[in-house]
From TrEMBL:
Pfam families: Lipase_GDSL. Keywords: Hydrolase, Signal. It comes from Gymnopus androsaceus JB14. One of its GO terms (molecular function) is hydrolase activity, acting on ester bonds. InterPro entries: GDSL, GDSL_Est/Lipase, SGNH_hydro_sf. This is Carbohydrate esterase family 16 protein. SUPFAM superfamilies: SGNH hydrolase. The keyword Hydrolase applies.
């Protein structure tokens, strides 16, 4: 157990990408036109098949005493969950050389899926495949500090990689996709980074990277969509949803403490280049639902429920204000 906790902490400590959330007013909501030929229809989806990192992986989160969105979303919609996301995951270790084995989307998660699919046949019409990846690629495991496998690798490559997941899964039979855009985390001095840094610069850099990733991936997916007949590809605007939670917390958070979108439930102070970390935690379950963040990187459980609620609406009705079907 102690070993597990150490490993978990190592993963978490290394997986941080720290930025202060910008209250920028550029929240362009996606408008969805109800057209029968695009997207999925109500009650079509019975299976949710998830890929990604700790934002999605329930096994990491449940060690922290909380649940991730897929568990809630499948609960809300009475659908089955097939979970392949891994905490600490990046898109590919060929781009970002993470120190953890068997967590990246391309090298591990897809392989695990194919192993599963060799014995278990999902009905592809009834299955929605999701991917929420990139926070670790962009953050302090990767691009933010120049940790790349070869000089020149950039957000363009990590975005190409994430978009390629759609084509790879399509070639393995998947037809319905929801591509979850990055939600940029907030930041302050915390558990995930004990080295020196200029927080303002990290903040600006993460904002640049995640905005670029969002626009690039949408354009790349639009381009890809034409080449995949019979595919339904949706983009889920997590970026916009998280910005709206930040700007308008009263619409989302319902705990008994004053609403708080800047400080996390679990707040840690690291000392420069030392292992010592001092953390405090909001104990009351009822107060926790007032917070947007669990720690400086991970959404709170209530934020996870909100993601779940929005994605459950996509599953139940085919439409949702944060989701846009490209095809
Ligand atoms: C949930 O789904 C299962 C299996 O598809 C079904 O047996 C059960 O009746 C459903 N429950 C509800 C509350 O719809
Ligand atoms: C990674 O996964 C492969 C294939 O499932 C397995 O053989 C290997 O032992 C795993 N490595 C670690 C360190 O868990
Ligand atoms: C941090 O970076 C910002 C933006 O480049 C700069 O204005 C500020 O002076 C820097 N702070 C320190 C302490 O270097
Ligand atoms: C959020 O929590 C922090 C730490 O407890 C506190 O300093 C801050 O004032 C809180 N903000 C609001 C808006 O309550
Ligand atoms: C807040 O709302 C969620 C549903 O979104 C509910 O599960 C939770 O119990 C609520 N929290 C409180 C403290 O009422």
């Amino acid at each position: 157990m102690a070993e597990l906790y150490k490993l978990l902490r190592a993963i978490l400590c290394l997986s941080g990408s720290l930025i202060v959330f910008h209250a920028l007013n550029h929240n362009r909501r996606t408008e969805v036109l109800p057209q029968e030929s695009i997207g999925i229809h109500a009650r079509q989806i019975q299976n949710l098949v998830t890929f990604g990192d700790s934002f999605t992986d329930p096994s990491i989160q449940s060690h922290l005493g909380k649940q991730t969105w897929p568990v809630y979303a499948t609960g809300y919609t009475n659908t089955s969950l097939f979970q392949f996301a891994k905490g600490g995951g990046v898109c590919s270790t060929e781009l970002i050389p993470i120190p953890f084995p068997n967590v990246s989307v391309v090298e591990a998660q897809i392989r695990n899926y194919l192993e599963f699919a060799s014995t278990y046949k999902l009905d592809m019409e009834e299955s929605l495949f999701t991917l929420w990846i990139g926070t670790n690629d962009l953050g302090s495991l990767g691009l933010l500090i120049g940790k790349v496998t070869e000089p020149g690798i950039s957000v363009v490559d990590t975005t190409v990689c994430a978009v390629n997941w759609v084509e790879i899964m399509y070639n393995h039979g998947a037809r319905n996709f929801l591509f979850q855009q990055l939600a940029t985390p907030q930041s302050y001095s915390n558990l995930y980074w004990a080295g020196s840094r200029n927080t303002t610069e990290w903040n600006l850099m993460m904002h640049e990277l995640s905005s670029a990733a969002k626009s690039l991936s949408t354009l790349m997916l639009q381009n890809l969509a034409h080449r995949l007949p019979g595919a339904h590809i949706g983009v889920f605007d997590s970026f916009g949803l998280f910005l709206d939670m930040f700007n308008d917390p009263k619409n989302y958070f319902n705990g008994t403490a004053p609403l708080n979108v800047t400080f996390p439930i679990r707040s840690c102070v690291c000392h420069l280049d030392s292992d010592e970390v001092i953390c405090t935690e909001v104990e009351s379950e009822h107060e926790r639902d007032s917070y947007m963040w669990w720690d400086e990187l991970h959404p709170s459980e209530q934020a996870q429920r909100i993601v779940a609620k929005e994605i459950a609406e996509v599953i139940d009705t085919g439409f949702n204000k944060w989701s846009k079907w490209l095809t």
